[in-house]
Amino acid sequence: MAIVRFKGYGEIEVPVGTSILEAAQELHAPEGYACGGVCACSTCHIYVTKGSNLLSDQEEEEEDMLDKAFDVRSNSRLGCQSKIERDGEIEVEITRESLEAYENEHPQERGKYVTWR
Ligand code: FES
């Protein structure tokens, strides 16, 4: 089992094979997923701050999609493409881009996670 901590939203224990997006959904953490997790958007954009070596490698398709994301950093990943491959602790931060997407997908929660200007 692996522990995934979402900065500001708590943590959850999940089995190997789970994606970071699936872990977020189980925890009810506000990670966007406009395309439903098929690597066709960048709304599940996260920063992996610990345990990136426990995740599946980044494939070309994910890199291409991240090229279109906002505020991309060296630790950027797409949550739906980041599968947990080994037990351990993983820490992630949900990007503003992803929080905004989540709020757009869940209008009833609008204003809960992002300060809109
Ligand atoms: S949900 Fe669209 S790329 Fe991850």
UniProtKB/TrEMBL annotation:
PROSITE patterns: 2FE2S_FER_2 (PS51085)
This protein's UniProt keywords: 2Fe-2S, Iron, Iron-sulfur, Metal-binding
PANTHER family: FERREDOXIN-2, MITOCHONDRIAL (PTHR23426:SF65), FERREDOXIN/ADRENODOXIN (PTHR23426)
InterPro entries cross-referenced by the UniProt entry: 2Fe-2S_ferredoxin-like_sf, 2Fe-2S_ferredoxin-type, Adrenodoxin-like, Beta-grasp_dom_sf
Name of the protein this chain belongs to: 2Fe-2S iron-sulfur cluster-binding protein
Keyword Iron: yes
Cofactor names: [2Fe-2S] cluster
Keyword match Iron-sulfur: yes
Domain 2Fe-2S ferredoxin-type: 2-98
Family membership noted in the UniProt record: Belongs to the adrenodoxin/putidaredoxin family.
SUPFAM superfamilies xref list: 2Fe-2S ferredoxin-like
